[in-house]
Amino acid sequence: MTPLLAQPLTPEAFAPFGTVIAVPAGEGRAINGGNAQRFDLLGDLQLGADGGRPALALFRAQARRFPHTFTEMERHALGSQTFVPLGERRFVIVVARAGQAPVSAGELSAFVTDGHQGVVLAPGTWHHALLAVDAGDFVVIERAAQAVDCDVCQLQAPAVVAPREAL
Q1: Which position among 41, 66, 108, 149 has the lowest Cβ density within 10 Å, counted as fewest Cβ atoms?
Q2: Shortest CA distance to 55 belongs to which of 144, 122, 146?
Q3: What are the distances in angstroms from CA 6 to CA 55, 145, 159?
Q4: Confidence category of residue 106, pLDDT binned at 50, 70, 90
Q5: Cα 37 to the chain's mean position, in Å?
Q6: What is the mean pLDDT of residues 26-48?
């Protein structure tokens, strides 16, 4: 089985699946009497569907071994899901376009962060659970509601993912 190689995460390549969170170029705007710069990254995380509300969580992730074999993907149809590392923590994100459940490895894309980037998965984007390259803490912002918004699908055959440097 040929591994799916995780490409470096760029805003352009990740656009069909969501938004990359990274320190923007430029100065931002001065706040707090000029003692801080503010950068507005995303105006709406799309968390309010069907009575949803924003929830902030901390995930403490163990480093995964790569190449990593997996058999399922998940999605949150009613809201986005955001992952931001605390400190320098790389992670791999395996995704497929929103819509019908992915059934084969050919429908998947994989990206590896540089340790400073986060991602906002668009509502409905299929993704694998957090695949930390570096163990540590991640802030997760997602939709909370009475009913859990998480669909899981099994792939037709196991898939394998690895960042290029792991092979």
Answers
A1: 41
A2: 144
A3: 29, 32, 13
A4: confident
A5: 25
A6: 92
CB neighbour list of residue 2: distance below 8 Å, 6 or more residues apart: 160
Confidence of residue 167 (pLDDT cuts 50, 70, 90): very low
* Pairing status of strand 68-75 against strand 151-163: antiparallel
Q: Per-residue pLDDT tens for 122-141?
A: 999 999 999 999 999 999 99
Strand partners, 95: 109, 127
Would you list the domain boundaries of the chain? 4-166
Q: Are 135 and 62 in contact (CB under 8 A)?
A: yes
The residues with which 109 forms a beta bridge, in sequence order, are 95
- Predicted pLDDT of residue 3: 84
Nearest to 153 by CA among 100, 110, 78, 79: 100
67-94 per-position pLDDT tens digit: 999 999 999 999 999 999 999 999 999 9
User: What span, in angstroms and rounded, lies between the C-alpha atoms of 22 and 10?
Assistant: 10
